[in-house]
Design goal:
This protein has 280 residues and is an alpha+beta fold. The protein has 3 domains: 84 residues, no CATH class; 88 residues, Pdz3 Domain, CATH 2.30.42; 91 residues, Alpha-Beta Complex (2-enoyl-CoA Hydratase, Chain A, domain 1), CATH 3.90.226.10. It is built from 8 helices and 17 strands. Strands 5, 6, 7, 8, 9 and 10 form a 6-stranded antiparallel β-sheet that branches. A 4-stranded mixed β-sheet has the order 3-1-2-15. A hairpin with a 2-residue loop joins strand 7 and strand 8. Helix 6 packs parallel to helix 7. It is globular.
Length: 280
């Protein structure tokens, strides 16, 4: 998902999740004034007219949810409203296990763009690449779909087939990929010895267990004879801010400033320091 902090606004049963995407610090949105009675009246009139005049019956819950989604997504490209089921699906993703294809995606100019195929998944094995634009899933065109809705139809029961049609820069014709969904269990940390004294550590995403897994990998593979560490973040699509801080804290001096968030209100501003005990 660009270099920013992603804000997800949830319904009242859930908290605010801050997702870290590659680097940098966040800026809270600027509006704060409550809507006026006339503005609320305009919304209610619009809903009433849709209910009375739209060509087919419309469910009240769907109308309100769509209104919330439009309101939040209009703030910036990285904000979205999530209902309870969508929160569950997101939690499956950040915990590192879900049914699907193994691609991290974002929305760019109303098109679903591949940020990165995840290592050792159907998408990576099939040859999907960063920058590919997915415009058709099976027989459904997904242009102008919300990112949540597009992800929802790409996920499914393990073992079920799916066809993606994509556009790729430098290729004139669309490319069709036929894949089979799998249970995607992401191992976000992988290590190996490149040669004596040099440790390679691959960080494929920032998930809940990533910081602890990295600390364990460093403890097991880095010693007094280690000459260098290669930390591979290529095609890392981002993830949880807390996990990214934990990864940074493994390599920085204690209490070093890693990043910070700022908002218009002082109580939402925070400095994140290299204190491994806070994150691991």
């Amino acid at each position: 998902m660009s270099i920013t902090v992603k804000r997800l606004f949830l319904n009242s049963a859930f908290s605010l999740f801050i997702l870290f995407s590659a680097s940098a610090c966040g800026q809270a949105s600027q509006s704060s004034t409550a809507p006026t009675p006339s503005e609320i009246k305009e919304l209610l009139i619009t809903i009433d007219r849709i209910k009375k005049n739209y060509v087919s019956p419309v469910d009240n819950h769907k109308l309100m949810e769509d209104a919330l989604k439009g309101m939040i997504s209009g703030l910036d490209p990285h904000s979205s409203y999530m209902n309870e089921q969508e929160v569950v699906e997101m939690q499956q993703n950040i915990q590192g296990s879900f049914g699907g294809l193994g691609i991290e995606v974002t929305l760019e100019n109303q098109l679903v763009k591949v940020v990165s195929p995840i290592d050792d998944t159907p998408a990576a094995r099939a040859g999907l690449k960063s920058g590919d634009l997915i415009f058709k899933v099976d027989n459904t065109f997904i242009q102008k779909m919300t990112l949540m809705d597009a992800v929802k139809i790409m996920r499914g029961e393990p073992g079920t087939p799916i066809t993606l049609t994509i556009r790729r820069k430098g290729v004139d014709k669309p490319i069709v990929f036929k894949l089979v969904r799998e249970v995607i269990k992401i191992q976000s940390i992988k290590t190996k010895m490149l040669e004596p004294g040099y440790v390679y550590i691959r960080v494929s995403s920032f998930q809940t267990p990533t910081g602890e897994a990295l600390a364990k990998a460093v403890a097991e593979n880095v010693n007094a004879d280690t000459k260098g560490i290669v930390l591979d973040l290529r095609n890392n699509p981002g993830g949880l801010l807390r996990s990214a801080i934990a990864v940074s804290g493994v390599f920085l001096k204690k209490d070093a400033l890693i990043t910070y968030t700022e908002g218009r209100r002082a109580d939402v501003s925070e400095k994140m320091l290299a204190k491994p005990e806070n994150y691991l």
